[in-house]
Design a protein that fits this description.
alpha/beta; Rossmann fold; 2 domains; five-stranded parallel sheet; two-stranded antiparallel sheet; elongated; 7 strands; about 290 residues
Length: about 290
């Protein structure tokens, strides 16, 4: 979902909640003459330009009547879910962070796996515990320093079933908890999104990639398992990650491929720009498939 659509959705949902609360209050007014008269007095005082002290006194009487009816004013004045933008979707700097998070959730297609750093059980790793501790320690430092970490791209690589997706999910969930927007996509879904963009004739087709480019962290899981689509896969992987780098945004990629295989599959140009030591932090997770150990 693009950011504009996410902002419109947030605004419309808040408007719908307000309309529902207003309708409930109108129905309540019909059941209580005292509340009806109190509401009328508050509105008349406001229209007549009475002092704030007088209006506050009338509102206190209305609140007292509501209390006797077992109700609260807050029931009929729903607070916006976002305290920053008031569910408008915008701040003075453009789209609010709540919009980016909403767009991220809608774009993912599947939620981040429910895994955190505390869920890791090192007993499954046997002799590979030092490797695990190093990987998790490195990524905890990454989270603690985010978003000012020097390396914009993170590569978690290793053989099948060594916990790469779990570690990526732990990072994503930790950053979401801190209020950052995270998009989590399999390589297949990333490829599919880029194909839809590439073949679209819609005027706003650029919006299809906005959530991928604008999120604070983009996670592409299982890179190397997707099909190589002509004029799509290699070109858009480079374009999206490169655009994010130009914006100072971070991308985390998991793969079963070693760096040499990545270079052979995606080309020297892409590998050099996205995965070299100068811009990319590589974290290896090796060992036996954890599913077999369990």
């Amino acid at each position: 979902m693009d950011l504009k659509t996410a902002a419109n959705l947030i605004r419309s949902e808040y408007a719908a909640r307000c309309a529902k609360a207003e309708e409930a209050y109108r129905r309540l007014l019909l059941t209580s003459d005292a509340l009806y008269e109190a509401e009328k007095a508050v509105r008349a005082a406001t229209l007549d330009g009475k002092s704030a002290k007088e209006i506050k006194s009338l509102e206190a009487k209305k609140a007292e009547i509501l209390g006797k009816l077992g109700r609260k004013e807050s029931e009929f004045s729903p607070a916006p879910r976002c305290k920053i933008c008031g569910d408008s979707g915008y701040t003075s700097n453009g789209f609010c962070e709540c919009v980016r998070r909403r767009a991220s959730r809608e774009t993912q297609g599947k939620a981040l796996p429910a895994f955190s750093f505390s869920n890791c059980d090192a007993s499954y790793f046997g002799d590979d515990v030092p490797m695990l501790e190093n990987a998790y320690g490195t990524m905890k430092i990454f989270c603690n320093k985010f978003p000012t970490t020097k390396n914009l791209n993170i590569l978690l690589f290793g053989s099948v079933g060594t916990g790469k997706t779990c570690l990526a999910a732990a990072v994503g969930n930790e950053l979401e908890k801190r209020g950052y927007s995270v998009v989590f996509l399999t390589a297949f879904r990333f490829n599919d999104t880029c194909l839809k963009y590439h073949t679209s004739f819609e005027a706003n087709r650029a919006d299809m990639l906005n959530a991928l480019i604008d999120s604070d962290l983009l996670i592409i899981d299982d890179l190397g398992t997707e099909s190589i689509l002509k004029n799509v896969t290699l070109e858009y992987l480079y374009t999206v990650v490169n655009e994010r780098m130009n914006l100072g945004k971070h991308t985390l990629i998991t793969t079963n491929l070693i760096p040499e295989q990545l270079e052979a599959r995606y080309g020297e140009r892409t590998f050099s720009r996205l995965f070299t030591q100068r811009v990319c932090l590589s974290v290896a997770l090796q060992g036996e498939d954890l599913r077999k150990r369990k």
